Amino acid sequence: MTEFRPDYVYDMTVTWGDCDAAGISYYAKTFDWFTNARMQLMAEHGFPYMDVFHRAGISLVCLKADCAYKKMLKPEERIAVHASLTELTRSRLAFGYRVFKRDGTLAAEGATAHAYVGDDGAPFNLKRRHPRLWDRLTANWPALGEADARAEKGQ
User: Fold this and answer.
1) What keywords sit in the KW lines (predicted)?
2) Phi, psi (5° rounding) for residue 59?
3) Among 8, 21, 99, 112, which is least packed by CB within 10 angstroms?
């Protein structure tokens, strides 16, 4: 997994609806938690999805989602979902996630990768199509923007 820099912590309680019949969190619900943490992360940094991306005709389409489950989670457990932007390029973003139990035990760790896709369903270069948004993103996460610039130059 890419270096993890927690940018946002999404605190929540596991609900019965998050669990299977055995009372253990259902694996697919973890991706809902990742989505919630990712949306809050972006909003916290001044990039609310609906206002900044959706209304501009930009969809962040998930290309890959992965999760390694370490510990069971049960209803009424308090957890913290740590989310971080781990990659920012002209064509995609990637996020890392870690789910911790209240006692600090790592319960799950995952990642998602997303492409910028227009209303026509085709991926595009964000820097070319929305240069002001690209500048804002790279100003907010300068190390990631610099890594993309180095990759563009072949360094």
Assistant:
1) Hydrolase
2) -105, 140
3) 21
3-state secondary structure of 43: helix
- Residue tagged 């360094």 (tokens): 155
Q: If we measure between CA atoms, which residue out of 113, 107, 102 comes closest to residue 27?
A: 107
Is residue 3 scored above 70 in pLDDT? no
CB 59 within 8 A of CB 121: no
CA 45 to chain centroid, in Å, comes to 13
Write out pLDDT tens, residues 80-126: 999 999 999 999 999 999 999 999 999 999 999 999 999 999 999 99
**What's residue 1's pLDDT?**
43
Q: Residue type at 52?
A: V
Q: What is the pLDDT of residues 69-79, one digit of tens each?
A: 999 999 999 99
Which token pair is 92? 């995609």
pTM score = 0.90
Give the C-alpha distances (Å, rounded to integers) separating 45 from 40, 41, 84, 154.
9, 6, 11, 29
Question: How far is 77 from 147, CA to CA, in rounded Å?
Answer: 38
- The answer to whether 115 and 61 are in contact (CB under 8 A) is yes
